[in-house]
Amino acid sequence: MAARSASHALNKRFIAGVCAVIALTVQSVMIDRSLSADDAGGAAGSLALDTPTVLDLNDLKKNPANYAWFDFRPNVKKLILAGDANSEHVSILWYTVANGSVGLHYHAKTESVYVIDGTQTDGKGTYPTGSLYFNPPGSGHAISNSSGFFILAYASPPDFSNTALIGDYRPVRVDTASAKLETALAFKKDDSGARVHALALDPAGGMSAELINVEASARYTYRGNYLLTLKGSCEIEGRTIGEGMLVVATTVQPQRYAMRPTEGNACMALGVSFGSGA
């Protein structure tokens, strides 16, 4: 009897040890893919809940060592969320330890950069925390003095060989941290009651983006690749996504996400899509 009890205790410790290893493995990337197909509301053609990644960017800033980065350049690390390093469409997190830099490169299609925390400089200026900018097709730049965390999306990978093709361009730039954001930009009310600002991006660039404000009883369905809650708290496909949380599709195909504010809240979100956004 004592032997059986000892064996049972040993098995319990073994199982607990296995569970701890599994938990540590999950924590090493710190992503949550727990949104299930049952939450989709039965919407026809909705693939939004096909294991999207949910990231808490506040945790990212506090615990960067828990994430599965790979080295891209000296002092520059990446974590690919969708696509791969050479795919035409890719969503990535970018992390520069200190004074990160990337040499001159060409963008055949649109590039999107959102500064989670930190700053970055190129030939068009310096971008502090909360900055959102889009470089159009035919643009190019060298990055310097980059420190912090960023969300990047490419409609085509950066090209370090064809820099002679870089033409004159002007980035589309938005300060999402500005208290005047909603009055400085033209938000239009749609039939659902949401107010939406579609950014003026080159349609040839393979990317679109929207700033979306939902409040009270407003509902909005966004078709895209990632949604970032900038202010307030959103309910996305039945799950509360608070300020500073990112929902990103694991596929490069745009997905549909049903949005509404959580009770008693208004919600502002940034949506970026490898598509028309329609």
Structural summary, described in words:
This protein is mainly β. It has 2 domains: 37-53 and 179-273, Jelly Rolls (Sandwich), CATH 2.60.120.10; 64-175, Jelly Rolls. The protein is built from 3 helices and 18 strands. The chain has helices at residues 2-27, 57-62, 181-184, and strands at 53-56, 70-73, 76-82, 90-107, 111-122, 125-128, 131-135, 139-154, 172-175, 188-189, 195-198, 208-214, 220-224, 226-236, 239-242, 245-248, 255-261, 267-273. The strands form 2 sheets. Strands 1, 10, 11, 12, 13, 14, 15, 16, 17 and 18 form a 10-stranded antiparallel beta sheet that branches. Strands 2, 3, 4, 5, 6, 7, 8 and 9 form an 8-stranded antiparallel beta sheet that branches. A hairpin with a 5-residue loop joins strand 10 and strand 11 (195-198).
Separation of the first and last Cα atoms: 68 Å
Per CATH, the architecture of the largest domain is: Sandwich
Query: SSE order, as H and E?
Result: HEHEEEEEEEEHEEEEEEEEE
Radius of gyration: 21 Å
The 3D shape can be described as: globular
The fourth-level CATH homologous superfamily of the largest domain is Jelly Rolls
What is the strand content? 35-45%
Question: Topology, pairings included?
Answer:
Layout: H1 2-27, E1 53-56, H2 57-62, E2 70-73, E3 76-82, E4 90-107, E5 111-122, E6 125-128, E7 131-135, E8 139-154, E9 172-175, H3 181-184, E10 188-189, E11 195-198, E12 208-214, E13 220-224, E14 226-236, E15 239-242, E16 245-248, E17 255-261, E18 267-273
Antiparallel strand pairs: 1-16, 2-3, 3-4, 4-8, 5-6, 5-7, 5-8, 7-9, 10-11, 11-12, 12-18, 13-17, 14-15, 14-16, 14-17, 14-18
